[in-house]
Design goal:
- By secondary structure, the protein is an alpha+beta fold.
- The chain contains 4 helices and 10 strands.
- The strands form 3 sheets. The protein has a 4-stranded antiparallel sheet with strand order 5-6-7-8, with no helix packed on it. A 3-stranded antiparallel sheet has the order 1-10-9, with helices on one face. Strands 2-3-4 form a 3-stranded antiparallel sheet, with no helix packed on it.
- A hairpin with a 2-residue loop joins β9 and β10.
- The chain is elongated.
- The relative contact order is 0.12.
- The structure holds FE2/S2 (inorganic) cluster.
- The site of FE2/S2 (inorganic) cluster has 11 residues, from loops.
Length: 186
């Protein structure tokens, strides 16, 4: 008596082909799903940090001792959505050609400050905090020096990482006071 495969050899080989194709497709999909997880688990943290540095622009021609506000784009990934945000940094090159990139917000209540060339200070217009060129608090209610970006310079380009909050300043000249306090309102 003949078995199924002996009776229909072509059908069996077609079935075998489909089974193999499904197996290969499953393997490809499995690999596609597993690779990001494996990369997350096994790519060292330092490598990931380096990859997340943002190119903020050319600093090779930056004048020494004159802060420059630099604008750059930062991409944010939220689930499947990728959005781009405009960010800024106050960048200072010192006499030794070292670069510091300050966050753009005053450490009091987050107003945008600017550089004033005549007294050579950063000035916050909201409650008149003053900061030196190296970010220290000179006057006003700001409780700590300006925050700094993690940064490095490669081939004349400024690469910025996360913004790091500065330590509380001992040199603050005024006690921290809310602008909405009763004293202000009077
Ligand atoms: S926000 Fe800058 S001094 Fe208040």
């Amino acid at each position: 008596m003949k078995t199924d495969s002996q009776a229909h050899p072509q059908e069996v080989s077609r079935r075998g082909f489909y089974a193999q194709a499904i197996f290969v497709l499953n393997a490809i999909m499995g690999a596609a799903l597993a690779l990001p997880t494996l990369a997350y688990l096994f790519v060292p943290q330092t490598n990931r940090k380096k990859q997340s540095l943002i190119d903020a622009g050319d600093v090779s021609q930056l004048p020494s001792g004159v802060p420059v506000e630099m604008t750059f784009q930062q991409s944010r990934v939220d689930g499947w959505k990728v959005s781009t945000q405009k960010r800024t940094a106050w960048v200072v090159k010192n006499a030794a050609n070292e670069i510091t990139a300050f966050g753009p917000q005053c450490t009091h209540l987050g107003c945008a400050y600017h550089w004033d060339e005549r007294p050579k200070q950063f000035v916050c217009p909201c409650h008149t905090s003053l900061f030196s060129i190296d970010g220290k608090v000179l006057a006003g209610p700001a409780p700590r020096p300006l925050d700094r970006y993690v940064s490095e310079v490669r081939n004349g380009r400024l690469l910025l990482g996360p913004l790091k909050q500065s330590e509380e300043s001992a040199g603050n000249t005024e006690p921290h006071r809310s602008p909405c306090s009763r004293e202000d309102a009077a």
